[in-house]
């Protein structure tokens, strides 16, 4: 047993290592056959037409917003209970960002709050162009309800599915984009599968796919159908818009493709551990994430919302002291100093703030052993009981 138990970590096996080594001995180190292999593996798994691998999920969110033509004067709405990247993508495009409060039981963006805010925004002429639902901790938002609102109010839906690789919703794998324009995955090492760093945009829309391919590589194309004016020769490529170098390397893609073969096993183990937490923590003064009907979480995070905010810091500190490296997900994005300087103030999303003051994230990852799990539950239960008494 390790001395420290982290809240999350990657699982790398000999197959992963051999696959990466094979790329290093090959002719292609970037944007070669491994990229296509990884993209195809993810697209087939999710049942989606197109997948575009990029350097990380932050880049994926950025070019997905650009492909949806989000720009200055437009507004993007997202959840405050997320990593900053879900909101920053709007600002990269010169657009505004606004936050929709969370549901106090699922900790996802609240569909009721979204509906209410849309009524008000329609009256004020301030409807969003893009809404980014975040599948917090791996559990999909109610996408069917969000899709209905998007049809009524005309906004695009971009799922931040960074936590939810391998999750299910309405009989479909998350990323299938049944109810959205596009979805984004992250392959950062703490997420469900990893490519070291990496991200992907998934979509069924051909127009978005073509735009995403250009945007990840400088806005450049070699497609004869797209070239403008006269062409000097076969060497000609053309930059049609201002894109970026957001390419993923073949080294990363090979690791990602190899990890895909174990995605089901990873999620199964996470689910087993989450079930055990539910049983082991029953009766304690805390709240676990409520399950959404027709949804299977990928269980990226095991969060517990303690009943009293006064308990959070002592619980966090005592567990860390005991070598259990708990974490906190998330401080509402708009309370970051950068966002406060833009004019956001506390009180904006009361449920997200009440949640933040009480939450701790317990260890959850496939290689967490039964013995380590028992240690975590034991220490957590003892510490919380002492502090709460
Ligand atoms: C991790 C994460 C991101 C960013 O992913 P990177 O691949 O690190 O850029 C975006 N959104 C959410 C919700 C995340 O958890």
Shape category: globular
What is the average per-residue confidence, as pLDDT, rounded to a whole number?
97
Terminal residue distance: 31 Å
Rg on CA atoms, Å: 22 Å
Structural class: alpha/beta
Q: Give a short account of the largest sheet.
A: 7 strands, mixed
Low-confidence runs: none
Q: Overview of this structure, please?
A:
- The protein has 389 residues and is an alpha/beta fold.
- The chain contains 13 helices and 17 strands.
- The chain has helices at 14-24, 33-46, 57-67, 85-92, 111-124, 143-153, 206-215, 250-260, 263-280, 309-321, 337-341, 350-358, 370-388; strands spanning 5-6, 50-54, 75-78, 96-99, 130-132, 156-160, 168-169, 172-173, 182-186, 199-203, 220-221, 238-239, 286-288, 295-296, 302-306, 324-325, 359-362.
- The strands form five sheets. The protein has a seven-stranded mixed sheet, sandwiched between helices. It has a three-stranded antiparallel sheet with strand order 8-7-14, with no helix packed on it. A three-stranded antiparallel sheet has the order 13-15-17.
- The chain binds pyridoxal-5'-phosphate.
- Pyridoxal-5'-phosphate binds at residues 56-58, 82-83, 85-86, 134, 160, 162-163, 186, 188, 199.
């Amino acid at each position: 047993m390790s001395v420290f138990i982290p809240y999350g970590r990657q699982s790398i096996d000999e197959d992963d290592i051999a696959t990466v080594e094979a790329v290093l001995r090959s002719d292609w180190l970037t944007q070669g056959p491994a990229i296509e292999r990884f993209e195809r593996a993810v697209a087939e798994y999710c049942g989606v037409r197109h997948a575009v691998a990029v350097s990380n999920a932050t880049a994926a969110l950025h070019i997905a917003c650009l492909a949806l033509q989000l720009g200055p004067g437009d507004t993007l709405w997202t959840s405050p209970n997320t990593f900053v990247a879900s909101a920053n993508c709007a600002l990269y495009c010169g657009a505004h960002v606004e936050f929709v409060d969370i549901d106090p039981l699922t900790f996802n963006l609240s569909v009721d709050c979204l509906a209410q805010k849309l009524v008000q925004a329609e009256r004020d002429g301030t409807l969003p162009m893009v809404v980014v639902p975040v599948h917090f901790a791996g559990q999909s938002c109610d996408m069917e309800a969000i899709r209905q609102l998007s049809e009524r109010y005309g906004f695009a839906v971009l799922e931040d599915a960074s936590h939810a690789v391998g999750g299910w919703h309405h009989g479909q794998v998350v990323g299938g984009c049944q109810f959205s324009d596009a979805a984004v995955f992250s392959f950062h090492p703490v997420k469900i599968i990893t490519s070291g760093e990496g991200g992907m945009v998934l979509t069924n829309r051909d127009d978005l796919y073509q735009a995403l391919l250009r945007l990840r590589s400088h806005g450049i194309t070699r497609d004869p159908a797209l070239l403008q004016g006269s062409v000097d020769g076969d060497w000609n490529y053309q930059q049609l818009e201002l894109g970026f170098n957001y390419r993923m390397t073949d080294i990363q893609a090979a690791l990602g493709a190899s990890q895909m073969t174990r995605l089901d096993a990873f999620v199964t183990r996470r689910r087993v551990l989450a079930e055990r937490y539910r049983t082991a923590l029953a009766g304690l003064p805390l709240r676990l994430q409520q399950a959404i009907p027709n949804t299977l979480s990928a269980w990226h995070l095991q969060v517990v919302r303690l009943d009293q905010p006064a308990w959070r810091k002592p619980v966090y500190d005592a567990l860390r002291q005991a070598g259990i490296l708990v974490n906190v997900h998330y401080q509402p994005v708009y309370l970051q100093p950068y966002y406060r300087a833009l004019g956001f103030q506390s009180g904006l999303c009361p449920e997200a703030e009440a949640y933040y003051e009480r939450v701790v994230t317990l260890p959850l990852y496939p290689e967490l052993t039964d013995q380590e799990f028992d240690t975590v539950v034991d220490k957590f239960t003892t510490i919380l009981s002492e502090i709460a008494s």
